[in-house]
Amino acid sequence: MSDTHVPRRAKDLPSRVWREVDTADLVVHAGDWVSESLLDRVRARSRTLLAVYGNNDGPALRARLPEVAEAELAGLRLAVVHETGPAKGREQRCERRFPGADVLVFGHSHIPWDSVTAGGLRLLNPGSPTDRRRQPHHTYLTASVADGELSGVELHRLPAG
Fold this sequence. Notes:
This protein is α/β, with parallel strands linked by helices. Helices cover 20% and strands 30% of the residues. It is globular.
């Protein structure tokens, strides 16, 4: 997930997202938490949390989270960052910036994104579960990892309200 903006855009995460947090082996958050209390609650309920800060996260969150996070999961090299710049040229920029990654999860735009670069880097943006902006739905992503491969990537649309 990304761009939760709690409590500015929503009082809390949707209950469906909390259920996913409770059951996932890894929770990824690509920044714009806004409140430390949400970070604390997600961290407490996650088996493992891989997270970064975003442009709306203040000094306290920036002191606790990196700008870029990386992990290896069952042979898959995962990177997380909040901002990747404009959509035009994104694939090339991200390939240059993250040459060792197989998958890059990013946020900032609140626009779901799923593409693969010419060099094979998978780019994923989960959108936002709490602040859809001009998108038709609030969203988040789930996926599976096994034997160095990402599979079952699914964009979940949340009901309005």
